[in-house]
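Onboarding guide, step 5: your first structure request.
Type a short instruction followed by the sequence, for example:

Predict the 3D structure of this protein.
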Amino acid sequence: MDLKTSVDEVLRKIGRNMLLFQQLEGLLKFTLSGNKLSGVSSQLERKQAKHVASTQKQTLGILVGQYVEEILGPETDDEGPDLDKITEPHFSYKFRLGHNEAFYEEIKTWLAQLVDDRNELVHHLLPQLDTTSAASCEETGQKLDIQADTIRQAIRNMQSIAKAMTETKKEVVALLQSLEGKSMLFPDEQPKTSALNK
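The system replies with structure tokens like these:
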């Protein structure tokens, strides 16, 4: 491969990997924007909008940290609402995946390495790239191909988790809209059985 072709190819692979990292970041933002919600009914919409806006501003490193702790991390005893102060319906939802400690640590380390790889790609690769050597460009291209495979694996994992979260939320909504759900939420408001129906 001649020098110009080698340089063009390695630059294409750098761009490809940057786009893959952006796709992964977008999936993390989607998942973290919808993994939890808690509050009284009159404030839920505002709280959710604020949460989504805050998540959209986070960097990949912050997103990975939140994902590891909020979705993969061990269950924590969150303080619930002060029941004496609630004057309207309160809703609370949290999506979390259960894992054993070894798997949790493995995924945590793997995702942290991905963040390091992304920072290396964005901030350090181009200044260090030797565009006067076809062999150097081809070697860098091979490393970028390996990196792309790793990012794609992370994307596939994140897509399956985002799908599971979306399906879970649909099931919760369907339950809340059903007669069974309404009877659980509002037991005192269910229609009484008429004497004619007996």
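Each response can be followed by summary notes, for example: The first strand starts at residue 36 and ends at 40.
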